[in-house]
Amino acid sequence: MKKFFSTFALLVFILEFTLLPVCAKKESMTARVNRVGRELLVKNQIDDKVRFRLRKTSKVNAYADIYKDIVVYSGLVKLCDDDDELAGIIGHEIGHIVNSHLYKQAAVYAAVYTAVNVAAQTVPAVALGTGLAYNVSSLTWSRSREFESDVTAVDLMIRAGYNPLAMVSVMHKISDNYFDFLSSHPSGEKRTKYIFDYISYTYPEYLKKGYKSDSYEDFLVQIQPVLDEREKNPKKMEKYLNKQAKLKEKREKKYEKYSRATRKKLEKQAKKEQEQAIKEKEKAKMQEQKALQKAQKEKEKAELKEQKEQLKQKEQEQKELEKLKKQQEKAKAKELKQKEKETKAKED
């Protein structure tokens, strides 16, 4: 029995120092979202003021706001098989930020809201017409923003080292659950095809590389008849090639704009840091000069004090000498007087 307990204790000790550290190293969902998000920002040199947050809920969603906060729901993170798929989700939301979709939407909404209020006070029918016109235009504009954010995510993923086909996989997997949660979003099927076409034309090497997931394989099966039909139809193929050529050119300019904006910001930041360094250097130099001046004044003060003390000491010594001289003269006079007295006494 004693031997059994000893063996059991040894096993517990081994488990504590082997298995538990492994469990402790497991990355949290929040840390994972932040890590993938940061990699997309850093590798693409994008504004590092973007913040990532995890909302713990079974719902499947993600969104970005005008404060550059990207919120990813835990239900959506769980649906991502790997970091590549998660990068597709986060990259899409970063796309809304770098393309200024949120600011533009807020500005348009504010303008329309003001127009509707003014119209409502004058002609109610005009106000209704204004609101309907905004809904129709907003719908089209919202859809174009989603498409732009999708291809932006692809560009960001590639430059950050992620496989863009993972976005096709995750889009196909959750198109009915996440990306169509608003009527302003295009259908998941259209967006997935749009992403796949963009990758096929702009980054064809990734099609050869492929992506291992059941969702991606299922998408390939569904899209193949469409690809075959396009391959057989010269007009459709020409339309596809022209559209993709324009999109590629547009995306290159857009990405250059992101980089240029980042470079300007970095240059501005570097200039600010340089100016701050110069100010700090000048401040340190002034402090050094002040310290030297203070030290010089203290030295002069000490020397003056020493000189005064020496002068005082000399004066004191002079007084002592004079006093001693007077005492000697007095003693000498007394002695002389005594001698004269003695001489007179002898004469008498």
Q: What average pLDDT do the residues reach?
A: 80
Head-to-tail CA distance between termini: 138 Å
Find the structural class using helix and strand composition.
mainly alpha
Q: Can you tell me the residue ranges where pLDDT is under 50 for at least 5 consecutive residues?
A: 11-24, 107-120, 123-141, 178-184
Number of helices: 11
How many strand units?
Answer: 3
Instruction: Tell me the series of helices and strands, N- to C-terminal.
Output: HHEEEHHHHHHHHH
Q: What is the 3D form?
A: rod-shaped
- Binned, the helix content reads over 70%
Name the features.
mainly alpha; three-stranded mixed beta sheet; 3 strands; 348 residues; 4% strand; rod-shaped
What's the helix and strand layout?
Layout: H1 2-24, H2 29-43, E1 51-55, E2 62-64, E3 69-73, H3 74-79, H4 83-98, H5 101-122, H6 124-159, H7 165-174, H8 188-202, H9 205-209, H10 214-232, H11 234-347
Parallel strand pairs: 1-3
Antiparallel strand pairs: 2-3
Helix pairs in contact: 2-4, 4-6, 4-7, 5-6, 6-8, 7-8, 7-10, 8-11, 10-11
What does this structure look like?
The protein is mainly alpha-helical. It has a domain at 31-232. It is 81% helix and 4% strand. It has 11 helices and 3 strands; from the N terminus they run ααβββααααααααα. It has a 3-stranded mixed β-sheet. Helix 5 (101-122) packs antiparallel against helix 6. The longest helix is centred in the C-terminal third of the chain and has 114 residues, at 234-347. The protein is rod-shaped, with a radius of gyration of 44 Å. The N and C termini lie far apart (138 Å). Mean pLDDT is 80; it is low at 11-24, 107-120, 123-141 and 178-184.
